[in-house]
Design brief:
- It is a single chain.
- The protein is α/β, with parallel strands linked by helices.
- It is built from 18 helices and 27 strands.
- Strand 12, helix 10 and strand 13 form a beta-alpha-beta unit.
């Protein structure tokens, strides 16, 4: 900052010179005390310079009847799960009042390695919202799946000093932490003086103590109030997650009160454009928490000031002189209806997005899987044994459950049991490394025919396919290979819906409006197969995530997360 800019801020704060931007007559919510004061808010550059007074400015906004709150901060998400580029995500989410996000480019890093992180940082330098990056700590997440890349500490250190980097992203390999794995230790040691993000589903007791002793400070994987309270009691900040699949807000909402709000923040983790268009982003979580009876200004505190404090962003989270001018203007505090957004002192308009410099896409040739035929989905029956473990899926959870089923077999293989809702699942390695195919069975989808395939397959992003018919499973997989990645639905020998995701098999080149339209079509096609899950495609994507209990499917086989070994 130049001396003359700082001088102008000081003078404008005193009312001696006009500010750059003034919001007149707005109800300012103090997220610390809960008071609402009708006032002007004066801004110079990217900084608030005055409140609780009258100001003149070069540009003015009428705030009459509206409320000003600090811009919202999404404390953990994977932008890739929005299925659009970071620049499209910016255009999609910023109007919902989200002015800062802390993203982990873990998904693209598992496909492209350091190139994927570099792409995200290049985008972050151009977005209107402030996109901050935590460096992916677990690529691959485990040795029990085949990823497209591997990141060791020497691959991460060149990015550490980047101005958009906050710290080390979610440390998913908690067994590696507890067993002092040398590669994990090297990463933890390098970030002991910075932020280390946590990921510890169902980790409690002395195991949790050991995990926290590594300097890990946050967790977004709590799925019950009891789990969250133990973690809070041990100094861990809880990030209440409400994504497209992982929906923990109802279970965790009760922990957010006047005693805990400084140690609680909000995140989405994985949320697609269709849900954002229909429900919103963090604004949706805020209004739902308030509707649950959570104290209003403590909810807004968790969404802004607490989030900033937890992650060391010392310049934002309050509407007060000297703080970053990230402001959401609301028509209603209770309903969190966002009508305007100021990001770093700029009123958000379509022109701001048009003025950004573009970033060339990467990973357009990352799909290296070979076409398959129906025979690869044959699951051989062991002599005299037709009772098999089955992955149990429930809506709104990325946790899966271990169930069993007695399946009939023909001369070739075990057969799905549609009456019992047991269908096939397979994961096909797509990075051109070994051609692995893992096969098993899953329940909870409700499919009566056809197949659903996805190249979004957390965390290694191989192709995951579920289905009742081997030929339709092969058809859906082969169409994804042709598209360079994406989603596909096959029914009766025809592809009935698809979405191409050619950027590393994860993100579209289309606008978020076009992607939302295609997702509508995909959901309808999945429903026509009998699918009962409200978000079938991301639910498929999480079947291959071997760091979330209890039973998962990887390209190497059926995996028991509790035992951390193959079934």
């Amino acid at each position: 900052m130049r001396s003359e800019q700082l001088t102008k801020m000081i003078m404008a704060g005193q009312g001696k010179v006009p500010a750059d931007l003034v919001i007149h007559n707005v109800g300012l919510l103090d997220v610390i005390t809960g008071t609402v004061t009708t006032t002007d808010i004066a801004v110079v550059g990217d900084r608030i310079v005055g409140t609780h007074a009258h100001y003149d400015g070069a540009t003015t906004i009428d705030g009459t009847g509206r409320f000003a709150v600090p811009g919202f901060i999404d404390t953990h998400l994977h932008i890739e799960s929005s299925l659009v580029t970071p620049l499209e995500f910016d255009r999609c989410v910023l109007p919902h009042g989200v002015t800062t996000v802390l993203c982990d480019p873990h998904e693209i890093a598992n496909v492209l390695g350091a190139e994927g992180i570099r792409y995200f940082l290049d985008c972050a330098e151009r977005t209107v919202m402030d996109v901050r990056v935590n460096l992916s700590s677990c690529v691959p997440a485990t040795p029990f799946e085949t990823a497209g890349a591997r990141l060791e500490i020497d691959d991460l250190l060149p990015f550490r000093a980047h101005p958009k980097v906050v710290g080390l992203a979610e440390m998913m390999n908690f067994p590696g932490v507890l067993n002092a794995d040398p590669g994990i230790m090297a990463k933890l040691l390098a970030f002991q003086d910075g932020h280390v993000d946590g990921h510890a589903p169902l980790l409690l007791g002395t195991a949790l103590n050991g995990y926290l002793a590594a300097g890990i400070r946050t967790d977004h994987e709590a799925t019950s109030a009891a789990e969250a309270r133990e973690k809070l009691g041990k100094g861990m900040a809880i990030l209440i997650r409400e994504g497209s699949v992982s929906k923990d807000l109802e279970a965790l909402g009760e922990i957010l009160d006047e005693n805990t709000s400084s140690f609680v923040a909000l995140c989405t983790d994985d949320r697609n454009p269709l849900d954002i268009a229909e429900e919103g982003h963090l604004d949706s979580s805020i209004r739902r928490l308030i509707a649950m009876g959570r104290p209003l200004h403590h909810v807004y505190r968790a969404a802004s000031h607490s989030a900033a404090r937890i992650f060391g962003l010392k310049d934002r989270g309050l509407l007060a002189p000297g703080w970053r001018a990230d402001i959401a203007l609301l028509d209603s505090l209770e309903n969190c209806r966002v009508s305007d957004v100021i990001a770093a002192g700029r009123l958000v308009t379509p022109e701001l997005f048009k003025a950004r410099e573009d970033v060339a896409p990467v990973g357009l040739t990352s799909m290296k899987a070979m076409p398959v035929n129906a025979d690869v989905f044959v699951t051989e029956a062991k002599a005299g044994q037709n009772r098999v473990p089955v992955i149990g899926v429930k809506p709104g959870l990325i946790l899966t459950f271990r169930e069993e089923a007695a399946l009939a077999s023909n001369e070739k293989s075990l057969q799905p049991d549609l009456q019992a809702d047991v269908i096939k699942v397979a994961v096909i390695e797509r990075h051109g490394i070994n051609g692995n195919i893992g096969r098993s069975f899953v329940t909870g989808f409700g499919l009566k025919r056809g197949a659903i395939a996805s190249s979004v397959g957390h965390d290694s992003h191989n192709i995951t396919v579920v289905g009742t018919d081997d030929a339709d499973m092969a058809l859906a997989v082969n169409r994804l290979i042709e598209l360079g990645g994406g989603f596909a639905v096959a029914d009766g020998g025809a592809v009935t819906a698809e979405l191409a995701l050619p950027i590393a098999g994860l993100m579209s080149l289309k606008s978020f409006e076009e992607v939302a339209h295609d997702l509508h079509h995909l959901r309808d096609a999945a429903k026509a197969l009998g699918c009962v899950l409200p978000e079938p495609f991301l639910q498929v994507a999480f079947l291959a995530l071997p760091v979330i209990p209890h039973l998962k499917m990887t390209d190497r086989g059926l995996f028991d997360v509790d035992k951390f070994d193959f079934v």
